[in-house]
Design goal:
Structural class: alpha+beta
Distance between the termini: 29 Å
């Protein structure tokens, strides 16, 4: 089967690899000049399966966000169409369905982590990786609010520890005492890792399996052939600048047996043009990455693994000799340079917890879009249009779920038994 994958971020590259490994002919289409150019470029770097399943994912929005519409993106005022997705999200958190969503998220995150570890070992991939997530709590109230989730994690057999401020500093010696740390939750099974490094290496492995890459191509139309024949994709050259010296083929159309929509920005609009509504919201998160101050013979003031400020919903993750600080949600699509006020929050968070740990004057700032639906689970499986499949709307959990979601999708397209129950991730649940 010839499958076109739309989008070359985490979801797209992982999907392309798994489909090619299953024996399919795969073509990846992306409007940028390379992989991981939007939401996967500089995400928070957390592999936070336990935390994500028990509570909202780091940076999950808690205010109205702009709905995705076929005609455009961005904030739409205070019309009901804006408030509705946010209201459904709040209602879901209070509903009996929340328990089922938690279980589904944990199952998929476990599958994803196992597949990531397997691929890293089998393919010999380089890995900027550090085990452990420490969630920082500034008050007893914050700890009390998380108690139900901790009890649930215990029932699921997830290892976690609640420690006091001294215990937190034993795990992360560089933590400052100034912000008033009350307690912390330690998840030794969660981690920090460099997702962009992984995507680039997996792209090479996918190419070795025969995956074809059509960069700087925009999908402009999709239609089925006569009598239910192959799907016809209309493509146009994108305006993304070409790196110096790079050349590539130009394709105006493509005939395939199936299409997988992985691009966060384009999927809802394309589905709407096909008569399918995806009730999703779009928001943008920002980050900065800075080199750490690593001085020989001195006490190391830098983070060892992953840290999450629960109140601020800002993550601090070590990536080799750098640190990635991420958070600050804004409605709509932003790509490139983030808002200065958002960056001030991130710099302040790093300075609060790890003062002087990084050369922030040399930081790389970034902002990119994410897509999410009300229950926080991704959409994986058939779209409702014959031959069109989905692996999108991962929200803040794209890195945590990437490998598992791709494995799940490839099994369904190949009509094999899905590794985890597909129902919680199906498009039908949103109707």
């Amino acid at each position: 089967m010839h499958v076109a994958v739309i989008g070359a971020g985490l979801a797209g590259v992982c999907s392309a690899f798994e489909l090619a490994a299953a024996g399919h002919q795969v073509t990846v289409v992306d409007r940028h000049a390379g992989v991981a150019a939007e939401g996967s470029f500089a995400n928070g770097g957390l592999l936070a399966g336990a935390y994500t399943a028990a509570w909202q994912a780091p940076g999950l929005p808690t205010r109205p966000l702009a709905p995705v519409q076929a005609g455009g993106w961005g904030w739409q005022g205070l019309r009901p169409s804006v408030w509705s997705p946010w209201w459904r999200q709040r209602q879901h958190r209070r509903s009996p369905h929340m328990a089922a969503s938690r279980s589904a998220m944990l199952a998929l995150s476990r599958l994803s982590r196992a597949r990531l570890d397997e691929l890293t070992l089998r393919l010999g991939l380089a890995r900027e990786h550090a085990d452990g997530l420490l969630v920082l709590l500034r008050s007893e109230r914050e700890l009390a609010q998380m108690r139900a989730g901790l009890d649930w994690l215990g029932e699921q057999g997830v290892v976690h520890h609640c420690v006091d401020a001294d215990g937190a500093r034993a795990i992360e010696p560089g933590l400052s005492a100034e912000p008033g740390l009350q307690a912390a939750l330690h998840f030794p099974g969660d981690a920090a890792a460099n997702s962009r490094q992984f995507v680039h290496q997996l792209k090479t492995e996918a190419q070795a399996l025969g995956v074809r890459w059509l960069f700087q191509h925009q999908l402009t139309g999709l239609s089925s052939g006569l009598g239910g024949g192959p799907l016809q994709l209309s493509l146009a050259e994108s305006r993304d600048p070409v790196p110096a010296g790079r050349t590539g083929e130009t394709v105006s159309s493509l005939s395939v047996d199936a299409v997988v929509l992985c691009a966060a920005q384009g999927a809802p609009a394309l589905l709407q043009s096909l008569g399918v509504r995806l009730p999703a919201v779009v928001h943008s998160a920002c980050s900065f990455t800075a080199p750490l101050r690593l001085e020989d013979g001195l006490l190391d003031p830098t983070p060892r693994a992953a840290i999450l400020d629960q109140r601020q919903q800002i993550s601090i993750a070590r990536q080799g000799d750098r640190v990635r600080v991420a958070g600050s949600i804004r409605p709509g699509v932003q790509l490139g340079r983030p808002h200065p006020a958002d960056m001030r929050r991130l710099y302040r968070a790093l300075d609060d917890w790890f003062p002087g740990a990084a050369h922030t004057s040399r930081s790389l700032e970034w902002c990119g879009p994410r897509l999410a639906v009300a229950d926080g689970l991704p959409v994986i499986g058939p779209s409702g249009v014959p031959g069109v499949w989905l692996n999108t709307a991962h929200g803040a959990s794209g890195w945590t779920l990437a490998c598992g979601a791709a494995l799940q999708l490839a099994a369904q397209i190949g009509q094999q038994a899905a590794p985890v129950d597909p129902a919680p991730f199906a498009m039908e649940r949103l109707r």
